[in-house]
Task: structure prediction
Amino acid sequence: MPIDDEDFESESISGDRKLELFTDRYEFTRRFAFYLNEDPARQQILYFYGDGGNGKSLLLQHLQFHCCKRFSPQVWKQLHDIPESQAAQVADFVRYAEPKTYTPIPAVRHDFGLIPIKEDKPQDRFYGLLMLRRNIAAATKKYKFKFPNYDFACFWYLLNKGESQATLNQLFPDDVAELVVPIIETFADFPVVAQAVAVLKGIDKLGGIKRAMKLIQNRLGVSDEKAEEIRRLDIDTELTDYFPKLFAGDLNATMAGKNKPDRLVMLFDTHEKMWDEKRNSQGATFWYQDEWFRRLLRALDYKLGIVVVVAGRECPVTQLRWPNASRFPIPADYIDAQLVWHLSPDDARDYLHKVKIDKADLADAVIKYASVNPADNLENLQVHPFYLGLCADAVLAERRRGIELLSSDFARIPKLENKTAELTDRLLSYVDREVRSAVHSLSAGRAFDEDLYVKLGSGCHFQASSANFEMLTGFSFVWKSQKRGDNWYRIHDLLRRLDADRHHPKTRRAHEVLEGHYREVGNAAEAIFHANRLDWQRGVEEWKEVFDEALRKSRYKECEALLEVRDELWIKSDYWLGRVSRSEGNYYAWLARYVEARQEYLEAVAAYNSALLIAPDDIHALNNKGNALQSLGDLQAKLSEFEAAKQSYFDAIVALNSALLIVPDDIDVFKNKGIALKCLGNLQAKLSEFEAAKLSYSEAIAAYNSALLIAPDYINALNNKGNALRGLGDWQARLSEFEAAKQSYFDAIAALNSALLIAPDAICVLNNKGIALRCLGDLQAQLNEFEAAKQSYFEARAAYNSVLLIAPDDIAALTNKGNALRCLGDLQEKLSERQEALKNWQEALEMFDRSLAIAPNRNWVRNWRDSLAARISR
Result:
């Protein structure tokens, strides 16, 4: 039952050749065979864990390609009765069994370590599951697996969020696309290959969402009750959390049906990649990283024959602490944790035999050299697979030159901590200088193909030839890089880490060449990765600057590309980790992905707290901690978590006051304190805590004035003072203090005009001036000061037009201009100026559509647009 039901490559040692040379982990093959053949099905997750380089990924490939077999009862009875001490006999039989003795079992492999490309994002809560969905469909074609409820929820999500730029055929399996595309073509004038978001927005533009979704629901076979349940869920805080359960529910239903395989194998590789740079996070922050995956595993019904195998570096019980997770724990009883240890000498001999290293004395010397423990008895040695592969590479490299290495060449055993370096250096000493240079250069890249190899050859001054490239891709430490396209490769992470730790000059030069190359071709994300390797802080600072600018201009694809390299950035200070995490939080909050946003803000606060433990008087950490807490408060207020939001604002103000005790004249801290107080005032006004709100606004304005006494031309203080005065005006208008409200709006506009005298093209200031003018116009219209209101709306529109001349796709200006025009049209309709009203409403509708074309997920804008469209049609 589901856990949720419980209470609580030439002569090569790479690629396909690697799989051929797989040296059986006999006990693991036998155990896997029991999962596929025992009845009733085992209700556990088989988890292989162990150090990097121990062959876990190769083990999963071996199980997938050689062992997904369910034998006839008679054959299995014989295998079952073979004692565990003879696991090799069972493993060999499974691997080489005659096809007539078994039924193939469908298997799908999901690698969390794949480099994200477009919509293939294996770690992502939404796109990772979609990848798994497509791969299961491909592996189970003959059984025609269906995921109706999950597919319907995905369409509903895309309709509301609209983040994907992929085609429907890229996002969904063919059978789903074939069902849905005709419906979409009926409602929207788009070809089948149009972007999914554009298609769905086309439906929206024609007002056919409900009808289209009803037809999709019927085509997929989703009940009215389930469809309504899905539609009721909040897109950002509930539906995204529900996807794993929907996915598992559909998979369970299929496996409980008639036309289904006896087993379905789901292999998940490199689980540790769910953390990467966040490995040291604690508590809920740590467990959040793979929460969606745990949710999926909990919801699967293993008794139906679903076999889950996971590979990762840490034990899920003692290190990942799955049973103790604060949310969605997986009890220890459901985990079959198996340590993937080093090879035995017998297995190592088997491997060496397969690569034609058969001389007994040489093989014994290599085995001893590649071991991780000193032992007098050869049979007690533990042989590291990665080291063994490097030794074999060295022997074969010399053999290609006509030289046979002897056992004496492996007589000196290096210390364990130096073994990777020693083995790598030894191997590379047996190849020519050009290949040696190429290895150190290529270890700088996240992946490479022959073209990039040639580019590095030119920049790093080694001779790049096809013959040398073929030799390189034949080494055991070179792996194919899936999802980067055909003929892409990567150097093993252990070797990349070694060259990085040793600051190898060839590798450093390669980073310089690759940074220049990627800047030349316009790939900012990859260029920043290499800049970070040359100077970690320069790279991190540039990442944050470029990311923030891309987000400000709504260039989401650029943000996504930067996020893809973010987990590989070196961030060597808690302070900078906090700054990066806050930027990530801003991105997720902007896209209304609130769960991720909250997590990033919490990580930012935790990072600053760590920095302050070391340096309690670090004003930069205190200042930025205040900013992170203020952003967290904004998010909590948006989610109606009002008490939590107030506490975050109070904590932000405390942090900023602590900074001011150290540097009383820091204008940036004053500005940030003012922002936190203004946000607190907004929340208090919303909660009708009027006196508290008035005090917060007054203190915010006082903070800005303190900054302006020191620096009268400080644009940020003038801008934010204008915002605080506008907030005060809104509060006064609610209390019917109309004259005071008007004065606050006039004062806000004056502060913003002062900023514009200094920086006429400041987009944020122009936007805020437009908002203040629109609020003033609303008040004037309420007071029947119609001509004055019109003038305020016209001036607001002019401010937004100034922004759009500078940045035509500025989402805030488009949205706010639409809002101002909507209000102007409302006033004109009230004054019986119907034609003028219609003209402004139509332009407002155009602004909303342009805004939604850039950020379709902003549901409040969509609501304004739909309401206005309905009024125009009447």
User: Anything to note?
Assistant: The chain has 40 helices and nine strands. The beta strands are 45-49, 69-71, 102-104, 107-111, 264-269, 306-312, 335-339, 478-480, 489-491. The radius of gyration is 31 Å.
